[in-house]
Amino acid sequence: MCRCFLCFHEFNISTNSKFLPMIASLPMYLRPELVDAHDTYWALINKNLRAHNISAPDRLSSPSDIYASWIDPDLILSQTCGMPYRNYLHSKVQLVGTPDFNITGCEPGYYRSAIIVRNSDTDKTPVEFKDATLAFNSTDSQSGYAAAFSFFKKHGFWFAKRYTSEAHLASALAVAEGRADIAAIDAVTWRLILAYESFSEELSVLDWTDPTPGLPYITAIGHDKRRVFESVSAAIDALPLDTKNLLGIHGLIEIDAAEYLRVSNPDE
């Protein structure tokens, strides 16, 4: 199960998706402080979809099986991770677009991961972590695993000691608490951790991974993906400034599927 997002099923923002005529979820950067912002965002998207005569649920859902929801023919909109998209979703869904979070050092729609360590270890070089413990959310996470693999392989090693945390937030906490020593945390998640988690004061960025296409929005095959794109893009433009700042979203970018597919997988 891809645990690319912050808090996995620690809260629910709507009824179960099986009772909805269509499925819509935005799970990747959802956390308690942002539920209202996500609801505002979805209300605008939903309004635009219905203006295009596209059926959509009133509320976002938290599917119990996110993988099943991603390939459900009733999926109107969700956000996935680049690694699941390139490895199996790309032939089963339509790529709608990629939200732009204005990540420093990245082109619009792209992101990268912060290699985070405890403050006491910031004077080390990456190679000095060869015998350390890496925390990662899941092996099918682009930002938490594949990006880390690519980064550390360039420094000539991969970790023999690895700790599966099941969420970026848990990976960062594991480093702060000393249960792990280092982790790759996607830049948007790291931004939110700095904003909302007091333990972030114990952590610093050692380095950054190379940019790759960000977490894409997808819809089921058979839907009008151009109208879905237009609905989401217009919703972003119409977001109240305070909500837009909370979400950190600046626009919706069209990135060709080939850009996702050319990113390499770990070859361990």
How many domain units?
2
The count of β-strands is: 12
Form type: globular
SSE order: EHHEHEEEEHEHEHEEEHHEH
Mean pLDDT comes to 93
- The CATH architecture of the largest domain comes to 3-Layer(aba) Sandwich
Q: What is the C-alpha radius of gyration, as a whole number of Å? A: 18 Å
Intertermini distance:
19 Å
CATH topology (level 3) name of the largest domain: D-Maltodextrin-Binding Protein, domain 2
Which structural class do the helices and strands define?
A: alpha/beta
Q: DSSP strand (E) fraction?
A: 15-25%
Reading off the top of the CATH hierarchy, the class of the largest domain is best stated as Alpha Beta
- Low-confidence residue ranges: 7-20
Number of DSSP helical runs: 9
Main β-sheet, spatial strand arrangement: 1-2-11-3-12
Helical residues, percent: 25-40%
What is this entry, summarized?
The chain is an alpha/beta fold and 268 residues long. Helix content is 33%, strand content 19%.
Structure description:
- The chain is of the alpha/beta class.
- It has two domains: 17-102 and 213-261, D-Maltodextrin-Binding Protein, domain 2 (3-Layer(aba) Sandwich); 113-210, Periplasmic binding protein-like II (D-Maltodextrin-Binding Protein, domain 2, 3-Layer(aba) Sandwich).
- It has helices at 35-51, 66-70, 82-89, 142-154, 168-177, 187-196, 225-238, 241-247, 257-261, and strands at 23-24, 75-79, 93-100, 110-111, 113-118, 133-136, 161-164, 182-186, 203-208, 212-213, 217-220, 251-253.
- The strands form three sheets. A five-stranded mixed β-sheet has the order 1-2-11-3-12, with helices on one face. A five-stranded mixed β-sheet has the order 7-6-8-5-9. Strands 4-10 form a two-stranded antiparallel sheet.
- The protein is globular, with a radius of gyration of 18 Å.
- Residues 7-20 have low confidence and may be disordered.
